[in-house]
Design goal:
The complex is a heterodimer of chains A (79) and B (231). Chain A has helices at 16-27, 50-65, and strands at residues 2-9, 39-44, 71-78. Chain A is an alpha+beta fold. Chain A has one domain: Phosphoribosylformylglycinamidine synthase subunit PurS (Mth169, Chain: A, 2-Layer Sandwich). In chain A, strands 2-1-3 form a 3-stranded antiparallel sheet, with helices on one face. Chain A is elongated. Chain B starts with 6 loop residues before the first strand and ends with a helix. The interface between A and B is medium-sized, with 10 and 17 residues.
Chain lengths: 79, 231
């Protein structure tokens, strides 16, 4: 089962990378009031159904893929 | 009887860089410096352990996140839980934070630039095994070299650490955007310390400062006391 994990810097955490991207977009003439840079992790998970896959991936996020002090995560399961 | 030489281990991970400097500095300060390979499941007989700087496992995912799973890190965690002295320098600090032995996390520098220079640090307390040769309030000069050194913890955790006196070193000038200019923290028990600056690069005046020796010699001395206590 395919899963995608989106890891984002939590709101309120300073994201200098996002600030640099925002400023670079401004230089290109785009009007952007905020940019935040996170990570995408694509996984192929051995699970019998989507519920089990989600539960597994959420545990992966809690134990490794995201650091709860600074990052939030979102799990997408694709059939 | 000659004063016993304490055995201080230095763990080498794939991507460690400062392990040899740490071994050299500890030996120069009269410890028996013992290299420890990251695959070792059991630590040799040691009186203290140093996790050195570098880029373990390429800093993949987050700095220190993968090194946390090394067999040697698991052994170091057990050593620390049993009261053993553990010092994490730079990447070693990041590993100790990811392993949950130390509070907080290290993020990309506010400037997005790698900083590599001598920085003044204020010693916040001199009653730890790592700072006995320093004086509270003293300013020492030690080099930093890191891209991800911005220490962060949520405000309520910072308040708790301040109340417990777990903030051990503070930058005396802006360095990387760390919360409250925090450069090094200890665990509550005081047997585990992490800091971003590199004491092992400052043990000989020829290199610009020997202030790092204050920290490492404190550690060696504390380790020696533990040996003497066992004799």
């Amino acid at each position: 089962m395919k899963a995608t994990v989106l890891v984002r810097p939590k709101r309120g955490i300073l994201d200098p990378q996002g600030d640099a991207v925002e400023s670079a977009l401004g230089h290109l003439g785009f009007s952007v009031s905020e940019a935040r840079v996170g990570k995408v992790v694509d996984l192929e998970v051995d699970a019998s159904d989507a519920t089990e896959a989600r539960a597994q991936v959420e545990r992966m996020c809690e134990q490794l893929l995201a650091n709860p002090l600074i990052e939030s995560f979102e799990v997408e399961i694709h059939g | 009887m000659a004063s016993p030489q304490p055995r201080v281990g230095v763990v080498t991970y794939p991507g460690s860089q400062d392990d040899r400097d740490a071994l050299w500095a500890l030996a120069a300060l009269d410890a028996e410096a013992v290299p420890v390979w990251h695959e070792e499941r059991e630590l040799p007989d040691l009186d203290a352990v140093v996790l050195p700087g570098g880029f373990s496992y390429g800093d993949y995912l987050r700095c220190g996140a993968i090194a946390r799973f090394s067999p040697a890190t698991t052994a170091v965690c057990e050593f620390a839980e049993a009261g053993g002295l553990v010092l994490g320098i730079c990447n070693g600090f990041q590993i100790l934070c990811e392993a949950g032995l130390l509070p907080g996390v290290l993020l990309r520098n506010e400037s997005l630039r790698f900083v590599c220079r001598d920085v003044p640090l204020v010693v916040e307390r001199d009653d730890l095994p790592f700072t006995s040769r320093c004086a509270t309030g003293q300013t020492i000069v030690i080099p930093v070299k890191h891209g991800d050194g911005r220490w962060f913890a949520p405000p309520e955790l910072v308040r708790e650490l301040e109340a417990n006196r777990q903030v051990v070193f503070r930058y005396a000038e802006a360095c990387n955007g760390s919360v409250d200019d925090i450069a090094g923290v200890s665990n509550e028990r005081g047997n585990v310390l992490g800091l971003m600056p590199h004491p092992e690069h400052a043990v000989d005046p020829l290199l610009g400062s020997a202030d790092g020796a204050l920290i490492l010699a404190s550690l060696v001395e504390a380790a020696r006391k533990r040996v003497l206590a066992l004799i």
